[in-house]
């Protein structure tokens, strides 16, 4: 073999080896699509988050001001230019009297209010009569008068700032406010 022949044979062997290696090489396998996740245990178990204690019960504390407002009612309403306790106010005032007898340390203030019509003096007097009418009703149901204060706001503290019969009707009220002793 001549030098060129040896070189040609080496070159042919190198090419043949490269071709055979290339023929043995396989295409990369496609990666599986990511699934929804492992369906069984994959590794050491991870601590699972435990459910929390859940929402805290937001109950109304018996004997609280919230209990009084929600479960009894703190407003009663009056007709125009009247301080007579209406029939629809009696159940609310009866419930107020019962609640106040259950919680004998509670002190209340009855606030008498009027709508925007009328003079300031007239509305202050009407608000005072309304507050006294509510107080007298509660006293007639066994609540000690020493636990009840009254005040008239006249038309100075409207519940509804609107005008018109609907707003005026809401502003003609006796509002029972707990001032002390509630939980």
UniProtKB/TrEMBL annotation:
<protein>
    <recommendedName>
        <fullName>Peptidoglycan-associated lipoprotein</fullName>
    </recommendedName>
</protein>
<dbReference type="InterPro" id="IPR039001">
    <property type="entry name" value="Pal"/>
</dbReference>
<dbReference type="InterPro" id="IPR006690">
    <property type="entry name" value="OMPA-like_CS"/>
</dbReference>
<dbReference type="GO" id="GO:0009279">
    <property type="term" value="C:cell outer membrane"/>
</dbReference>
<dbReference type="InterPro" id="IPR036737">
    <property type="entry name" value="OmpA-like_sf"/>
</dbReference>
<dbReference type="InterPro" id="IPR006664">
    <property type="entry name" value="OMP_bac"/>
</dbReference>
<comment type="function">
    <text>Part of the Tol-Pal system, which plays a role in outer membrane invagination during cell division and is important for maintaining outer membrane integrity.</text>
</comment>
<keyword id="KW-0564">Palmitate</keyword>
<dbReference type="InterPro" id="IPR050330">
    <property type="entry name" value="Bact_OuterMem_StrucFunc"/>
</dbReference>
<keyword id="KW-0998">Cell outer membrane</keyword>
<comment type="subunit">
    <text>The Tol-Pal system is composed of five core proteins: the inner membrane proteins TolA, TolQ and TolR, the periplasmic protein TolB and the outer membrane protein Pal. They form a network linking the inner and outer membranes and the peptidoglycan layer.</text>
</comment>
<feature type="domain" description="OmpA-like">
    <location>
        <begin position="65"/>
        <end position="182"/>
    </location>
</feature>
<feature type="compositionally biased region" description="Pro residues">
    <location>
        <begin position="29"/>
        <end position="54"/>
    </location>
</feature>
<keyword id="KW-0472">Membrane</keyword>
<dbReference type="Pfam" id="PF00691">
    <property type="entry name" value="OmpA"/>
</dbReference>
<comment type="similarity">
    <text>Belongs to the Pal lipoprotein family.</text>
</comment>
<keyword id="KW-0131">Cell cycle</keyword>
<keyword id="KW-0132">Cell division</keyword>
<feature type="region of interest" description="Disordered">
    <location>
        <begin position="25"/>
        <end position="62"/>
    </location>
</feature>
<dbReference type="InterPro" id="IPR006665">
    <property type="entry name" value="OmpA-like"/>
</dbReference>
<feature type="signal peptide">
    <location>
        <begin position="1"/>
        <end position="22"/>
    </location>
</feature>
<keyword id="KW-0732">Signal</keyword>
<dbReference type="GO" id="GO:0051301">
    <property type="term" value="P:cell division"/>
</dbReference>
<dbReference type="InterPro" id="IPR014169">
    <property type="entry name" value="Pal_lipo_C"/>
</dbReference>
<keyword id="KW-0449">Lipoprotein</keyword>
């Amino acid at each position: 073999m001549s030098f060129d022949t040896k070189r040609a044979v080496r070159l042919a062997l190198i090419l043949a080896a490269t071709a055979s290696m290339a023929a043995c090489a396989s295409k990369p396998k496609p990666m599986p699509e990511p699934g929804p996740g492992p369906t069984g245990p994959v590794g050491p178990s991870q601590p699972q988050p435990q459910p929390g204690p859940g929402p805290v019960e937001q109950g109304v504390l018996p004997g609280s001001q919230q209990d009084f407002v929600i479960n009894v009612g703190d407003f009663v309403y009056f007709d125009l230019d009247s301080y007579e306790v209406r029939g629809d106010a009696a159940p609310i005032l009866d419930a107020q009297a019962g609640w106040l007898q259950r919680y004998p340390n509670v002190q209340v203030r009855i606030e008498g209010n009027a709508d925007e019509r009328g003079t300031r003096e007239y509305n202050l007097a009407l608000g005072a009569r309304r507050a006294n009418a509510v107080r007298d009703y509660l006293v007639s149901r066994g609540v000690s008068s020493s636990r009840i204060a009254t005040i008239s706001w006249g038309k100075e503290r409207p519940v509804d700032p609107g005008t018109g019969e609907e707003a005026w009707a809401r502003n003609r009220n006796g509002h029972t406010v707990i001032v002390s002793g509630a939980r």
